[in-house]
Amino acid sequence: MADLPVLQESSRGTYVTWLQLNMNGLALNYNEFPTNGIFDQKTSDALKNFQDRFTIDPSGSTNAVTWKVLNNNVMAVQKLLKSRGLYDGAIDGWYGSKTEDAVRRFQSESGLYPTQIVDPRTRQKLFNPHPKDHFETRPTSIDLSSLNPRVAAMARNFLELTRKHNLDVRIITAFRSWEEEDKLYAQGRWTPGQIVTNARGGDSYHNWGLAFDAAPYEHGKMSMDVAKFKQMGALGEQAGLKWGGTFRAIVDYPHFQYTFGLNTWDLLNGVRPPA
Ligand SMILES: [Zn+2]
Fold first, then answer.
1. Residue 243 C-alpha to ligand 1 middle, in angstroms?
2. Mean pLDDT across the stretch 215-239?
3. What is the rounded CA–CA span in Å between residue 200 and residue 203?
4. Per residue in 144-203, pLDDT tens?
5. Pairwise CA distance, residues 204 & 176, whole Å
6. 188: which residues sit within 8 A by CB, 6+ positions away?
7. Per-residue confidence at 120, pLDDT binned at 50, 70, 90?
8. In 3D, which of 100, 106, 62, 49 has the Cα closest to residue 80?
9. Cα(205) to centroid of ligand 1, in Å?
């Protein structure tokens, strides 16, 4: 995998096509870029999103680390497909037509929609076929007890802090079901409305009990005052949470999370926060 080129916006050629095929195959094609060998804005956004996920400097260009992590992720998929007898191609880190075919066959025999890409549900079935904790079938809840116990404790501390500052903060969502997440993902893509998330079911921290949404209220109604949201966000950060108001991709004022340093692919792959 030596000497892969540094690609950035306006780059063109075969390596851009491979970059696009890999990102598409790993379900990073949130904004539907074509695999055409032209490094456009959407390709760049997807790449930044990927870099963000793996805490690589989100430059939007393919430095050596980015290529390595991207190719390693494809190789992990190829190895698992090979071990199941579905893939006889090379473990080369490129999401080509043989990998696509193998993923489609895996999806067909697993009762998954044959998208040919490693969407979150496919990832879970492939990497973690028998999860014991059944996050994928849990219902949406507003109750903090639906969260990871440590995140729930942080949320309670945060609410306590807001009360001390005379803010009436209420929880809007704690755990969110994968099904509901898929509906949110569809919004602005194939159902009406604005795009509100880049996460499919299983790809949001809400789907793992590691995130919740909250909002300041005034006179019994949700506040429209950005300053109040910012005050709330600062108090959440004081409680040790990461606030969505600081997100780069889609700024999300009501959102708080604590991830234990795991990304959602880790969780889908079967890695769990410490008990
Ligand atoms: Zn949220």
1. 9
2. 96
3. 5
4. 999 999 999 999 999 999 999 999 999 999 999 999 999 999 999 999 999 988 899 999
5. 9
6. 194, 195, 196
7. very high
8. 106
9. 8
Residue pair 106/122 in contact by the 8 Å Cβ criterion: yes
Tokens (6 digits) for 57: 């400097």
Cα dihedral 18, 117, 65, 93 in deg (nearest 10):
-60
The distance from CA 250 to its chain's CA centroid, rounded to whole angstroms, is 12
SS3 5: coil
CB-proximal residues (5 Å) to ion ligand 1: 213, 255
CA distance 270 to 18: 28
Domain ranges within the chain, ordered by starting residue: 14-118, 136-268
What's the token pair of residue 134? 């059944």
Q: 170, 215 in Cβ contact below 8 A?
A: yes
Q: Does domain 136-268 have CATH number 3.20.20.70?
A: no
Q: Enter the pTM of the model.
A: 0.93
Task: For residues 79 and 115, give the distance between their C-alpha atoms in angstroms, rounded to a whole number.
Answer: 19
| Secondary structure (3-state) at 255 | strand
The whole-number average pLDDT for the span 61-75 is 95
How many A from CA of 204 to the centre of ligand 1? 8
- What is the whole-number distance in angstroms between the Cα of residue 146 and the centre of ligand 1? 14
Structural contact between residues 123 and 106, judged by C-beta atoms closer than 8 angstroms? no
